[in-house]
Every structure is written in structure tokens, then in C-alpha cells.
Amino acid sequence: EASLNSFKPVKPKEKGRDETLPSDSYSPFNGKAFSFDYPDNFNPTSPSKGKYEEVVEFRGVRQDCSIRFDVSSAKGLTLEKVFEQNKGLVRGGAAGKATVGGEPAMTLTGAVTKDVQRRMHFIVKNDKIIRITTDWYRPQSDAYTAAYDKVIGSVKLK
User: Fold this and answer.
1) Of 18, 52, 63, 141, most Cβ neighbours within 10 A?
2) What is the pLDDT of residues 7-53, one digit of tens each?
3) Ramachandran region, residue 61 (left: φ > 0; alpha: ψ -120 to 50; beta: rest)
4) 158 with 35: CB under 8 angstroms?
């Protein structure tokens, strides 16, 4: 019965719409440390948990476009200290500030490859580091960053 209730009919293709772009409709995801909405045409993956307490990843039709959440212990570190320790993760990264789920966040934006951009959001809440990583195809930056802004705007931290 749960399977039947979770069934969603396939939406008809919009004529002339680029299927690789993020969908205009969103679905909810509810994790242990956060919840958020993601574009319907992004699919869950099964990333290795590794050292993290929680890892969630969704990939778009383009495999170089994704949304990933990692949660680990902050071990008493402040947001600024966490950011300082991680700022080397993005080549040529530009720092910024944001608010995610009502909490202050620091961002790092830069290139992964010549065609792929990455933005990382770092949040510290309840002695947990929540890192949100978004990757997108640079020639389609406007569509992806608009969709990712909706994702970030929908985040609720627990």
C-alpha cells in the first residue's frame, strides 16, 4: 500500500523545454538534521556515508549537476573556524555570507572544472556542521542557480 501511495504519474514533457534543466516543480525531502525541496527531475543517489553522520545527494539529468548535504560533528568549532578549515575545498573559491534555514551561513563559490561551478554553504547548528554543496553546468548557470536558490530557501534545520 505504501508503494501505491508513493506512486507519482509521469508528467508530460513540455514542448521545446530543455530536459537537462532543473524542473519547475519540486518534491520534499525529510532527513534527520534538515528538510528541503528539490527539483522533481533530480534523482537520489547512494553516496558513501564515510565520516559523515548523514549524507544526502540528488543528481540532475546532467550528471555534473547535483545537490549534496553532509552532516558531521562541529566538535565545538564556530562557523568561522569551520569555514577557515574548509576554504581550500574549492579551487579559486570566492567567500560569501548567506542565511540558511534562519541560521547564518558562509559560502564558497568556484570552479570544479572549466564547465562546472560549485557553491558550498557551511552552517553550524547544535554542534553539527551542515555542508550543502551544489554543482552546475556553467553555460546554464542562470537556470541552475535560480533552482538552487529555491532549494536553499526551502531548507529547514532541525
Assistant:
1) 52
2) 666 655 556 678 899 999 999 999 999 999 999 999 999 899 999 99
3) alpha
4) yes
**Residue 87, Cβ neighbours under 10 Å: how many?**
15
Cross-strand bridge partners of residue 108: 95, 120
Selection from 21, 9, 38 nearest residue 152 by Cα: 38
pTM of the model: 0.88
Whole-angstrom distance, CA of residue 135 vs CA of residue 148: 9
User: Which amino acid is located at 110 in the chain?
Assistant: G
DSSP-derived 3-state class of residue 17: coil
- The CA–CA distances, whole Å, from 119 to 56, 70, 126, 138 equal 16, 14, 23, 12
